[in-house]
Design brief:
Layout lengths: L2 H16 L22 E3 L14 E5 L11 E7 L4 E8 L7 E4 L2 E4 L12 E8 L15 E5 L5 E5 L5 E2 L5 E3 L7 E6 L5 E10 L7 E9 L29 H7 L4
Parallel strand pairs: 1-3
Antiparallel strand pairs: 2-14, 3-13, 4-12, 4-14, 5-6, 7-13, 8-9, 10-11
């Protein structure tokens, strides 16, 4: 084999490989600077309209998680137990499958819009006793995993998250997908402080910001929760959508018959 022919080919491949930049594939990539956004952790208790039980609807936004390091963006909030069940609902931007709307007969086409996934994001919801939370509000997103020694002195893991959803198959512990609401309710002790946690799983690719609507209410959650239960999570500043309208949530819910 002629090694003189291999040398230029090897050099060309090396130059081509150097041109490959995987950063634009990351959700926390900043196209303006070419760098990466750092994780954003908000303490909603410091907000002017901090979430409270039976308070006003909270609208906020969060940045992307650091995918490479596994450091999550997100937000936390606390509330006092009522001695009854408390329901938490969060709806991340914007609407899953804009071109579909639920109806009594299942999924049916919505003639008013096309699907536009670039303005959608995903949040995971968890909650539990504030004393069991492993993160630091405003600094680092954590969870409610703990451990305890068994009878032999061996540490055993335990999940102390009280916010449990059922997936589409009826199994407990599921989470919703992009742009889809998550909710849960659980019994609370009066005067006890609980922590709610929103963890960013993905952000809209059109502006790298995830808007969300959050509601904390007393009692059990409604038997049916959909993308129109909470409204206000659509980002009005996003680019005009292909169908010509500029508020996919409003358009979707105006024609929702579920």
């Amino acid at each position: 084999m002629n090694t003189r022919l291999l040398l230029p080919l090897t050099a060309a491949l090396a130059l081509t490989a150097c041109d490959l930049n995987p950063r634009p594939l990351l959700q926390n990539y900043d196209p303006e600077s070419g760098g990466l956004f750092t994780a954003e952790v908000d303490d909603l208790d410091l907000s002017d309209n901090a979430p409270t039980v039976d308070g006003t609807l909270f609208i906020g936004s969060l940045g992307a998680s650091e995918v490479g390091s596994g450091t999550h963006s997100g937000a936390t909030f606390t509330f006092e137990g009522t001695g009854d069940r408390v329901c938490i609902i969060v709806d991340p931007q914007s609407v899953w499958r804009d071109d579909l709307q639920a109806s009594g007969g299942g999924e049916s086409a919505n003639p008013y819009m096309d699907d536009y996934p670039h303005d959608d994001g995903d949040l995971d919801l968890s909650a539990g006793l504030a004393s069991f939370y492993t993160g630091t509000p405003g600094v680092e997103i954590g969870d409610f995993f703990g451990s305890f020694p068994d009878g032999n002195g061996v540490d055993r893991a335990i999940d102390l998250n009280l916010c449990l959803m059922q997936d589409t198959h009826g199994s407990t512990g599921g989470t919703a997908g992009r742009a889809t609401p998550e909710w849960c309710d659980f019994e609370t002790e009066p005067g006890t402080t609980y922590m709610g946690v929103l963890t960013v799983f993905s952000v809209p690719v059109d502006d790298d910001r995830l808007r969300f609507a959050l509601d904390v209410r007393s009692g059990a959650c409604p038997p049916s929760i959909n993308e129109c239960t909470l409204q206000g999570d659509y980002d009005e500043l996003a680019e005009e959508l292909p169908s010509g309208f500029d508020n996919v949530e409003e358009q979707y819910c105006a024609n929702y018959d579920g």
